[in-house]
Amino acid sequence: xxxxxxxxxxxxxxxxxxxxxxxxxxxxxxxxxxxxxxxxxxxxxxxxxxxxxxxxxxxxxxxxxxxxxxxxxxxxxxxxxxxxxxxxxxxxxxxxxxxxxxxxxxxxxxxxxxxxxxxxxxxxxxxxxxxxxxxxxxxx
Length: 140
Description:
This protein has 140 residues and is mainly alpha-helical. Strand 1 (3-5) and strand 2 (10-14) form a beta hairpin. The chain has helices spanning 21-25, 58-130; strands at 3-5, 10-14, 51-55. It has a domain at 1-23 and 42-56. A 3-stranded antiparallel β-sheet has the order 1-2-3, with no helix packed on it. The chain is rod-shaped, with a radius of gyration of 44 Å. One of its GO terms (molecular function) is microtubule binding. One of its GO terms (biological process) is negative regulation of centriole replication.
């Protein structure tokens, strides 16, 4: 069933095709059925429901406006949530880039330190092999 509100506070309601024709064509003010042959031959084969006007009560109008307000509030909350998520994504991306840069810098420093330590060890080993070791006999 489709429901649409117009400016005159009435709803358009589509009546399903399965509703008996007597209920579909009856006149509520006279209590008689309308002429079933009043439609053109183009409309007859279509089993589309007929449109009827239904008066909206004050309670239904309040419910409608309350639902519209709730819908607008939910849309605002969804928009805020999406913005927050987008900002969080940007912040996480920046943080991950900084983390990778820091990791690369640390790796470079470790390689430099490793190279310096290797050079120092080889220099110490070369210096130790060039110097004569004092023997234990010379000390006595």
